[in-house]
UniProtKB/TrEMBL annotation:
<feature type="transmembrane region" description="Helical">
    <location>
        <begin position="311"/>
        <end position="332"/>
    </location>
</feature>
<dbReference type="Pfam" id="PF03773">
    <property type="entry name" value="ArsP_1"/>
</dbReference>
<comment type="similarity">
    <text>Belongs to the UPF0718 family.</text>
</comment>
<protein>
    <submittedName>
        <fullName>Permease</fullName>
    </submittedName>
</protein>
<feature type="transmembrane region" description="Helical">
    <location>
        <begin position="283"/>
        <end position="305"/>
    </location>
</feature>
<feature type="transmembrane region" description="Helical">
    <location>
        <begin position="36"/>
        <end position="58"/>
    </location>
</feature>
<dbReference type="InterPro" id="IPR005524">
    <property type="entry name" value="DUF318"/>
</dbReference>
<feature type="transmembrane region" description="Helical">
    <location>
        <begin position="79"/>
        <end position="108"/>
    </location>
</feature>
<feature type="transmembrane region" description="Helical">
    <location>
        <begin position="237"/>
        <end position="262"/>
    </location>
</feature>
<dbReference type="InterPro" id="IPR052923">
    <property type="entry name" value="UPF0718"/>
</dbReference>
<feature type="transmembrane region" description="Helical">
    <location>
        <begin position="12"/>
        <end position="30"/>
    </location>
</feature>
<keyword id="KW-0472">Membrane</keyword>
<feature type="transmembrane region" description="Helical">
    <location>
        <begin position="128"/>
        <end position="153"/>
    </location>
</feature>
<keyword id="KW-1133">Transmembrane helix</keyword>
<feature type="transmembrane region" description="Helical">
    <location>
        <begin position="208"/>
        <end position="225"/>
    </location>
</feature>
<keyword id="KW-1003">Cell membrane</keyword>
<keyword id="KW-0812">Transmembrane</keyword>
Length: 333
């Protein structure tokens, strides 16, 4: 019985149960749900493959020690760099998960990781152009500035909290380290041509399989959830709840935007129409930022990586940052 209960709590079981529910309750949409999730996962596959191969290579060569060492003693600069890099990286909130997993496993400080984590889903070059076309350049530039500012805010907030030791060991499972038999050793020199040694080839294969399966199962569940949201929760209905002016509308917009799925390509045209119907620019900004940072598909994947207190902090920083960005943007415009 314990084994059965444990199996039912796995991502694979969640996927099967969700699709089974669609098959029973709405069989006409089962194929469309599966196709949507499969296409979304296929679009992310290149990021998964790159992240898995890179992490396995670092483990097999022993270079992960060098990567982790590069983050030591440079935390403030790394926070700023991570926030800026996140604002330029073309990743949505789900696609960034493989890279966050790798950074955490390699010992990157949580403050810098949080800065990248918060800023990365918000803006990228294509999104900037789409947002400018639908909402104007002031809104697009405001969102880009908000992305970097949110990363800096989250990174330095985590840095302050880490001084008390409250955020030690953020991962749910401690990262595996190399051991014996010619594998990576702490303080050792990397062996870049790892394929010349059998133990290192074994490490590479094991890391590829382990990390690949881990990321595949959680991202597959995330995209099934995303497909269900797109199918059964109309974006227009969600966004209509946040019409009106004032600071209250900005707070409501951020709260509603958190669980809503509006990707960065769909949101600008929809929000442009709602702004024309009376939605404030600040509420639109808060809605867009909160939705990008903490959509349900992204939260499902984030939950798989970190402990509950770090997950709650991520959500809290995202919500607070969205409200602050909305308020400041409302004052500016």
């Amino acid at each position: 019985m314990p084994a059965l209960l444990g199996a039912l709590r796995t991502p694979w079981a969640g996927i099967v149960l969700l699709l089974a529910a669609v098959a029973v309750l709405d069989p006409a949409n089962l194929r469309e749900t599966v196709v949507f999730a499969a296409r979304a996962l296929a679009g992310t596959a290149q990021y998964i493959v790159i992240a898995v191969l890179l992490l396995a290579y670092l483990k097999a060569t022993g270079a992960e020690v060098m990567v982790a060492r590069a983050f030591e003693g440079r935390e403030i600069r790394m926070i700023a760099f991570a926030a800026l890099l996140g604002g330029l990286a073309p990743f949505c909130s789900c696609q960034v998960i493989p890279f966050i997993a790798g950074l955490l496993a390699l010992g990157a400080p949580l403050s810098a990781v949080m800065a990248f984590w918060l800023s990365s889903p918000l803006i990228d070059p294509p999104t900037l152009l789409i947002t400018a076309g639908a909402l104007g350049w002031p809104f697009a530039v405001g969102k880009a500035v908000a992305a970097v500012a949110l990363g800096l805010f989250g990174g330095f907030a985590v840095k302050v909290l880490m001084r008390s030791g409250a955020l030690a060991s953020p991962l749910k499972q401690a990262p595996r380290s190399g051991c014996g038999c010619g594998g990576p050793k702490p303080g050792g020199k990397p062996v870049w041509r790892f394929w010349s040694e059998a133990p290192r080839r074994q490490t590479f294969r094991a890391e590829c399989v382990g990390n690949g399966v881990f990321l595949l199962k959680w991202l597959a569940l995330a995209y099934v959830l995303e497909a269900l949201l797109v199918q059964y929760v109309p974006a227009e209905l969600i966004a209509q709840l946040v019409g009106g002016d004032g600071l209250g509308a900005i707070g409501i917009a951020a709260l509603v935007g958190m669980p809503a799925y509006l990707n960065s390509y769909v949101a600008p045209p929809l929000l442009a129409g709602l702004i024309g119907q009376g939605m404030s620019a600040g509420a639109a900004m808060a809605f867009m930022i909160a939705g990008a940072v903490s959509s349900i598909p992204a939260m499902a994947a984030v939950w798989s990586l970190v402990k509950p207190r770090v997950f709650a902090l991520y959500l809290g920083l995202g919500l607070l940052g969205a409200v602050m960005a909305g308020m400041l943007f409302q004052l500016v415009v």
